[in-house]
Design a protein that fits this description.
about 170 residues; mainly alpha; three-stranded antiparallel β-sheet
């Protein structure tokens, strides 16, 4: 009898957790839908969006650092970067200290696109958090939850990256 109850509790918990997985899928679909439409007008996609986002947050970012952030192959990044450079969204320059390294920055055209994409997604976050949700307990809980989804050995690095980007944007 007790084993039957434990099994039912486990199945109920598993079903609730699968529902959370589904909600994440649907939330991501809708979180990216408008951005996808904006990007599609210029023949760009989500990979381009991620590059634009991180270069905007960290002007002068080295290509090698971007590879580490995105965890994609050099070939994949090269294709996306070449398209962004050719479309004049990103500027790539040789590093003054290390001639083997390239530094990335958004062009005015890239800044405008990245800002439009960010503005839309920030609006979605604000709506999801609700009135007075930002800078409050809800935001803290959402941050904790999202951070917990990140691999444990990456969390400290991600937090430092985000903190550094925020400071650079304030200057």
């Amino acid at each position: 009898m007790a084993d039957d109850v434990d099994e039912q509790d486990r199945e109920s918990r598993d079903e609730r957790l699968i529902t959370l997985v589904e909600l994440l899928f649907f939330a991501y679909r809708d979180f990216t839908a408008e951005s996808d439409a904006i990007l599609d007008k210029d023949g760009l996609g989500r990979a381009h969006h991620r590059v634009l986002h991180f270069v905007r947050r960290q002007p002068g970012l080295r290509v090698t650092d971007l590879l580490a952030i995105l965890k994609i192959t050099k070939q994949s990044l090269a294709r996306v970067l070449n398209e962004l450079i050719a479309g004049e969204w990103i500027d790539s320059r040789i590093d003054g200290e290390d001639r083997r390294a390239r530094r990335l920055a958004l062009t005015p055209k890239g800044e405008e696109l990245a800002q439009r994409l960010a503005h839309h997604q920030v609006g979605q976050i604000v709506r999801a958090l609700g009135a007075n949700g930002t800078d409050g307990p809800k935001e803290v809980e959402v941050r904790r939850f999202l951070l917990a989804l990140i691999a444990q050995d990456e969390r400290e690095h991600v937090q430092a990256l985000i903190a550094g980007a925020s400071k650079r944007r304030e200057l």
